[in-house]
Amino acid sequence: MSARVLVVDDMPANVRLLQARLEAEYYEVLVAHNGADALRLARTEQPDIVLLDVMMPELDGYEVTRQLKSDPETRHIPVILVTALDGRDDRLSGLEAGADDFLNKPVDEVMLFARLKALVRLKLMFDELRQREVSGRKAGVFDPAQLQRQIEAVGNVLVIDDNERQGMRMLRQLGRTHRCAFETDPQKAQKIASGRVDLLVLNLTAKSFDPLRFVAHLRSTEATRQTPVLGVYSAEGRDILLKALELGVNDALPRPVDAQELIARAHTQIRRKRYADYLRNSLDRSLELSVTDPLTGLNNRRYMDMQFINLLPRHLKAGEPLSLLMLDIDYFKRVNDSYGHDAGDEVLKEFSRRLTQSVRAVDMPCRLGGEEFVVLMPGADSEDARHIAERVRLQVASAAFNLSTGHALNITVSVGVSTLSGTGDSAEGLLKRADEAVYEAKQGGRNRVILHAA
After folding, report:
1. 349 and 329 in contact (C-beta within 8 Å)?
2. For the whole prediction, is pTM greater than 0.70?
3. pLDDT digits over 369-420, tens only?
4. Coil, strand or helix: which one is 231?
5. String of DSSP letters for 55-116
6. Residues designated as active site
7. Mind listing the domains of the chain with CATH numbers?
8. In terms of DSSP bridges, do strands 372-378 and 4-8 run parallel, antiparallel, or are they unpaired?
9. Buried-most residue among 110, 252, 303, 431 (CB within 10 A)?
């Protein structure tokens, strides 16, 4: 898996060494020799990952990381800090700044490429999700304040470890800031993980089950494919760690587990998971809004047009009936003029409720706009459609519409019915005939159903 890597180091020799190693593996390499250039290149070139030296003049690696992670244009880019420092406080400083991982100098080449591949996979997923963020902003469903609340909310963490003493210790440590559960049985853990879990903490050196097979099963199951896994490994378990990263473990920390590092890494993974979840949900909401009338909750004209594209060819080819109701609320303008547009909105919402209750489960009620509605009725012949239209008319006229102001309005509806006439018919033809039937109903006194003979 190739990628664009930004290498940042104030020592030219270090840059050349890393650049040669990366290019030998067919990575595209960008170079910066100070923090300011790194920030500029990250924004303009959008690399897939940043390999960043910690000890640099002016802007050190921690500050560059903080600025990258606070900028909406670069916060999605994974950052690996490369450092000669190997102290606990140094790692914690980097994690708190937003770094995704650490490599110590001299760089272990095998570990470097394992980390790169894991983080590049993550970056590719977030690139797709960032497109959803753009779509969500355009659709008006992206709320930065709500996103921040969701990201900072308490996480749900499941610790999976056959070493009960170690597992309970991690449970207590993470339980200071998150809701946590502990499980020793991988099958039970798999079931729990299929629910609302934000992070799995897995002992990669478990003896009573195969942790790598457990990870493989997680990544092959739809419900857990995107759930982050934080692995715990021992110093002598390097090969297991490399395989775990290849299989899809998101992050790892060594034993003995440092409590603050565990909390910091867990916090990073949970925030990332919540961000991804929010972006996925915002796309779902934007898609729903694109085919939904916001006032009534019914489908809109766009949805109706898409259904016509799908339904007409199928029904024409199979010779199956397809009918359409067009409904127009009688004297609706009087409601707006006499009681105001808020009253009109109440009438439209109540009318939509009664319409939905009166049609079949397979029917598709849509609001065209204003007081005009359409119901697509797959499988309904003209008599079925006329019967259902009459039921709608009676449901609307049978009881007054009670407004929040205390007024009770008697509302009626005129309905036109048309049915697919066979080869050569079209959506335009169905709508035109139903519209003509509505006009006839209006001319005939309103509050009636007219069936248009094809």
Report:
1. no
2. no
3. 999 999 999 999 999 999 999 999 999 999 999 999 999 999 999 999 999 9
4. strand
5. --SSS-HHHHHHHHHHSTTTTTS-EEEEES---HHHHHHHHHHT--EEEESSP-HHHHHHHH
6. 371
7. 1-140 (3.40.50.2300), 141-285 (3.40.50.2300), 301-451 (3.30.70.270)
8. unpaired
9. 252
